[in-house]
């Protein structure tokens, strides 16, 4: 997709800092983040035990020795300085959340105090929540489950939302949208991250005010068959509409392989649904000139003469856009050459105005012979 996830990751979160920003209570316990993540490594690379230097052995009563430990601080400001409106608990020992459900975590913090439970989040300010949400989204897109786990423990919401520029690139200029972490992971083909977020309670069918494009939309747009199947088998709505009333099937016929289109058709989507401009899946398949996908839609029962908002059929669009292969496909399926749009123009009249000789010859021949499939 057009949103540069790696650039966003470098800009908003851990990769641009010489050290990772643990919160103040972790720093007080003496834990030191000593590693850097090489983003040229394969997606999903997470923290390792070599990246974390645990605090020296001490007893609960050795508070003085803990505060005297020399810790190399990151160049970026401390979590305390960056979030001055947040007051942590007076005593770290007052925190007694359950252990993290991820027993395979490579970053185990050996300390008398565990990280706060996601079920009992800190009283974070709006700015702090937004920062955690942006970092969780970036980690989700990168497939970094280890950081996702940590951010959720620090209070990030698994269903947080993040503003994503250029999400809807079909518009000129491209429009901004919001995505949930699950939608971000799905759109960046991070199956393991999708599975992890689902296990932590991420919504598969968020509302448009929570994610303006659903996880299924994003998986289909990325043409990730495995993630699309995972979501559909767990209840993803095949007819869900994004912020512009576009369904996953419409995305599929424009962006995805025939295999992904077939998968969605297996879940019986509404083939007559209209998007924001009034076009159905048929119209979405004509513009990118995808006759194979058109065949799949028509075999599934799509109306070959379905009209969009201005009364144009698929034939009108194929003629206007000079999509010869799509035009031939529609004619084979018996599209009505005599259909008129809201301007009372037939397909032949539109072809005459367009001026493409090959297109005009095809529709004139079809009109003269009444050729049907």
From TrEMBL:
Pfam family membership, one: Ank_2
Compositional bias per record (Low complexity), positions renumbered to this chain: 59-68
Domain of life: Eukaryota
ANK repeat residue intervals: 211-243, 277-309, 310-342
Entries under PROSITE patterns matching the protein: ANK_REP_REGION (PS50297), ANK_REPEAT (PS50088)
Keyword Protein biosynthesis in record: no
Keywords: ANK repeat, Repeat
The keyword rRNA-binding belongs to this UniProt entry's keyword annotation: no
Disordered, as annotated region: 33-68, 81-120
Protein name per the record: Ankyrin
């Amino acid at each position: 997709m057009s949103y540069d996830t790696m650039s966003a990751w470098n800009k908003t979160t851990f990769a641009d800092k010489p050290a990772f920003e643990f919160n103040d209570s972790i720093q007080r316990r003496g834990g030191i983040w000593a590693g850097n993540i090489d983003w040229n490594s394969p997606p999903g690379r997470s923290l390792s035990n070599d990246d974390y230097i645990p605090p020296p052995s001490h007893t609960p009563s050795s508070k003085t020795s803990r505060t005297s430990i020399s810790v190399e601080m990151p160049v970026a400001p401390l979590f305390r300085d960056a979030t001055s409106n947040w007051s942590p608990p007076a005593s770290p020992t007052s925190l007694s959340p359950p252990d993290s459900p991820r027993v395979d975590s490579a970053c185990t913090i050996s300390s008398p105090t565990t990280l706060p439970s996601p079920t009992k989040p800190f009283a974070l300010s709006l700015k702090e929540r937004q920062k955690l949400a942006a970092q969780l989204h970036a980690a989700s897109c990168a497939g970094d489950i280890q950081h996702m786990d940590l951010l959720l423990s620090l209070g990030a919401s698994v269903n947080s939302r993040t503003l994503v520029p250029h999400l809807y690139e079909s518009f000129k200029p491209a429009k901004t949208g919001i995505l949930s972490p699950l939608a971000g992971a799905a759109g960046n083909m991070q199956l393991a991250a999708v599975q992890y977020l689902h296990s932590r309670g991420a919504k598969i069918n968020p509302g448009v005010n929570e994610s303006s494009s659903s996880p299924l939309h994003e998986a289909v747009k990325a043409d990730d068959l495995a993630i699309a199947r995972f979501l559909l088998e767990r209840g993803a709505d095949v007819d869900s509409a994004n912020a512009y009333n576009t369904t996953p099937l419409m995305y599929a016929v424009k962006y995805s392989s025939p295999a992904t289109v077939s998968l969605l058709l297996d879940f019986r989507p509404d083939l007559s649904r209209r998007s924001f401009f009034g076009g159905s899946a048929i119209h979405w398949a004509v513009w990118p000139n995808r006759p194979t996908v058109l065949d799949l839609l028509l075999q599934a029962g799509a109306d070959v003469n379905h009209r969009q908002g201005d009364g144009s059929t698929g034939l009108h669009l194929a003629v206007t856009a000079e999509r010869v292969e799509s035009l031939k496909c529609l004619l084979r399926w018996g599209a009505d050459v005599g259909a008129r749009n809201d301007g009372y123009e037939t397909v032949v009249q539109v072809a005459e105005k367009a001026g493409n000789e090959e297109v005009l010859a095809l529709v004139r021949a079809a009109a003269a012979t009444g050729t049907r499939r």
